[in-house]
Amino acid sequence: MELFYRKSGSGKPLVILHGLYGSSDNWMSIARKLAGNFEVYLVDLRNHGKSPHDDRHDYESMRDDLLDFMDQEQLETAVIAGHSMGGKAAMCFARHHVARIERLIIVDIAPKSYKSTYRGQSPNHFDILKAMQDIDFSDVSSRRDVDRLLAPTIKQPRIRAFLLKNLEKGDDNKYSWSLNLGVLLRELDNIMDGINEKCFDPESPVNEFPVLFIRGENSPYILDEDMNFIRKIFPLATLETIPDAGHWLHAEQPEAFTGLVRKFASGANGG
To answer: Disulfide engineering: 107 pairs with which of 55, 73, 83, 119, CB 3.0-4.6 Å?
Structure first.
């Protein structure tokens, strides 16, 4: 699959993978901050953004897409960074293609199953995807209309504003979603469950490169106790916590986030 991507800057290659509902567009301000130090590649994962839609949406497919992308761009090695779903895709890639990674940055996600917890969130991912899928675009003439239709299910304006970034307007002035909602809804359990500690062999840890996990202080996605099995998988892993930030820490605290990424990806921490 030929993925859509945005490229900026010069220097050491840094490939950034977004999370569920995300796209390269959400990371452009981060790329601008890092472009003075790195050649930044913002990739749209399959079924997201401007990349092709496909009936498969699992981490093995995303892993293979990333390998094809790096081969296409002639990136022998790169610093790989992934947020949430993109972080799990990056960990899957790291497990199988250690020689292609210089350093690995995992943003607010752990190699564990979230299947038993995501339905307890409000709104949960199932409700979000279903609400988006149920939009009747024949009754929509503006983004405000879509926001209004989502509001009964998704009460948080910030979450709705993030989701609305996935709206596209065609030549016929009709709106649609860039996300492949049907496939994402069908594969939701796998997205939440896939790439957990059972996917890795504790007898063969991934110790060929340094790994940085970054979490938001207010996010429940990486707990202190998670570092026990994280270090069994990635013995060289370190953890940094960004204060006053949740799951979308790169948007909430961009200066702190880019500072950590810049330092680690350049090797300035000596790791």
So the answer is: 83
Question: Quick one: 23 and 109 in the same domain?
Answer: yes
| Strand ranges, E, within the chain | 5-9, 12-17, 38-43, 78-83, 101-107, 167-169, 175-177, 211-216, 237-242
Which of 157, 186, 215 is the last residue in one of the domains? 186
Q: Range of 136's domain?
A: 118-186
**Can you give the CATH number for the domain in which 94 is found?**
3.40.50.1820
Report d(CA 270, CA 263) in Å as an integer: 9
The residue among 52, 28, 53 whose CA lies nearest residue 42 is 28
- For 95-122, the pLDDT digits (tens) are 999 999 999 999 999 999 998 776 666 6
Q: How far is CA 146 from the centre of its chain?
A: 24
pLDDT in tens, 239-257: 999 999 999 999 999 999 9
pTM: 0.95
